[in-house]
Amino acid sequence: MRLVISAFCLLVLFSYAAAYDPLDPNGNVTIKWDVMSWTPDGYVAVVTINNFQTFRHIMNPGWTLGWSWAKKEVIWSMVGAQTTEQGDCSKFKGNVPHCCKKTPTVVDLLPGVPYNQQFTNCCKGGVVEAWGQDPSAAVSAFQLSVGQAGTSNKTVKLPKNFTLQAPGPGYTCGPAKIVPSTIFLTPDKRRKTQALMTWNVTCTYSQFLARKNPSCCVSLSTFYNETITPCPSCACGCQNKKNCVKSDSKLLSLVGVHTPQKDNEPLLQCTHHMCPIRVHWHVKLNYKDYWRVKIAITNFNYRMNYSLWTLAVQHPNLNNVTQVFSFDYKPVNPYGSINDTGMFYGMKYYNDLLMEAGPRGNVQSDVLLKKDKDTFTFKQGWAFPRKVYFNGDECMMPPPDSYPFLPNSARVNLPTFPAFIFSLLFRLAIW
Ligand SMILES: *[C@@H]1O[C@H](CO)[C@@H](O)[C@H](O)[C@H]1NC(C)=O
Ligand SMILES: *[C@@H]1O[C@H](CO)[C@@H](O)[C@H](O)[C@H]1NC(C)=O
Ligand SMILES: *[C@@H]1O[C@H](CO)[C@@H](O)[C@H](O)[C@H]1NC(C)=O
Ligand SMILES: *[C@@H]1O[C@H](CO)[C@@H](O)[C@H](O)[C@H]1NC(C)=O
Ligand SMILES: *[C@@H]1O[C@H](CO)[C@@H](O)[C@H](O)[C@H]1NC(C)=O
Ligand SMILES: *[C@@H]1O[C@H](CO)[C@@H](O)[C@H](O)[C@H]1NC(C)=O
Ligand SMILES: *[C@@H]1O[C@H](CO)[C@@H](O)[C@H](O)[C@H]1NC(C)=O
Ligand SMILES: *[C@@H]1O[C@H](CO)[C@@H](O)[C@H](O)[C@H]1NC(C)=O
pLDDT tens digits for 342-367? Predict the structure, then answer.
């Protein structure tokens, strides 16, 4: 048994390290460079960042893209983004480049920059929506003019060692690969043009690399049992406990406490779970053909407004969602046939902003599900979600033996073991 458990743990670790996400197996961020023209000493390229992840967006404070030049390239100018440092350009007289660093670090511009610094899909402070939320907003782009570089597709050297912080760690990028040149359609769709050369870089996310603790937890309750199953204690690690703030603390009225920090360091409300986010799943009503769940998301971070938040949930009955009252909803179908996963997100201008901790720091909605007579049951925790992800990070569930259960139902302990083996087999099968 011990062997099986350690094998299972290893498998989990390994699947994390390989950046494999069972709910979004094909998700990635692609960085595409299109060379638009060759110049006397280099080229002009358009760099496009596409977020192909179903439910993981790039949130505040946005992406930071880095790479290493293969030779002595410099960036003469940039439109729609900027490097964070210019570096040492002292050997240039007259025309001084935008950046002379060997490893430039690029960030998006903020909204509202002057028109002549803008570029299509730029200037959103590095925030990029998830593909499942809005494919047209899952993109960010800028243009740069590279000097001291190759001036043809035979002499150009591809940049190396791409890094993407989106924001913070978690993404691993592969090498740049030359791909068939992008074809562009003019706005009136009457003419096609073509990039002179195109290369792609693919980056994938791993929660394991991003942080050592979860960043959210799940609590459960039902109409048929008054027990509220709380989030597990220290679900998100208790190392911040000494810095947490009680919800009635006078500190909270001080100016500046709610200001986001440069390093995105949270200021958490003191809770036993110490998570910035709690997702509560309440089994609310039972009708003849339907049942109703209430989902509430609570923010415990005083320093963060979550814009464009997403909640991905796996539950066998999500194949038959009848109505979602106050969130937008989209089914996610990672394996074609089993559509037991869905994505909830805020309605634009209504609740797509989950406010900082406090009286307004929560969003909620009811979900009406149609019962499938063959599988529906309130027994053995069937009515609770199997997996919950907030903003693309998996939330910690309470242990199954603490779930509220149906009164008078004989507890069957037997299924735990086969269920464990089954999940092991399932992981192996999809791996
Ligand atoms: C990146 O994601 C897209 C969309 O899911 C997929 O078509 C493509 O194959 C992925 N690329 C890699 C290298 O995995
Ligand atoms: C390169 O990236 C673009 C998106 O930026 C994608 O549409 C295209 O399929 C990618 N090409 C390859 C060969 O992966
Ligand atoms: C380089 O450009 C030439 C034409 O200028 C073209 O025939 C060739 O296929 C290109 N090579 C690559 C790798 O794009
Ligand atoms: C890329 O990164 C590797 C390991 O971090 C390093 O050894 C190598 O020198 C880097 N390459 C360039 C061109 O900076
Ligand atoms: C969150 O948004 C509200 C309203 O826009 C603003 O007053 C507050 O300062 C923001 N909080 C943070 C931490 O950014
Ligand atoms: C689940 O998948 C089936 C078949 O692929 C489809 O007909 C059905 O509409 C899907 N359900 C939802 C809620 O998307
Ligand atoms: C949803 O429920 C209806 C009615 O029970 C059923 O006919 C249909 O097959 C269900 N859809 C799925 C995808 O299970
Ligand atoms: C509610 O569920 C808890 C387990 O979480 C159990 O201990 C308790 O007996 C249940 N209450 C009733 C009335 O069955």
Answer: 999 999 999 999 999 999 999 999 99
Taking only the tens place, the pLDDT of each residue in 1-16 is 444 444 444 444 444 4
The pLDDT score that the predictor gives to residue 251 is 81
Q: Identify whether the C-beta of residue 298 lies closer than 8 Å to the C-beta of residue 318.
A: no
Query: What are the structural domains, with CATH classification, of the chain?
Result: 19-209 (2.60.40.290), 212-409 (2.60.40.290)
Ligand 7 center to 373 CA (angstroms): 10
Three-state DSSP class for 115? Answer: helix
Q: How far apart are the CA of 28 and the centre of ligand 1, in A?
A: 6
- The pLDDT of residue 173 is 97
Which is nearest to 330 in space by CA: 344, 311, 315? 344
Query: Which protein residue's CA is at the shortest distance from atom 12 of ligand 1?
Result: 202
Nearest by Cα to 139 from 154, 128, 152, 147: 128
| Per-residue burial over 28-61, b = 16 or more CB atoms within 10 Å of its CB, e = otherwise | bbbbbbbbbebeeebbbbbbbbbbbbbbbbbbeb
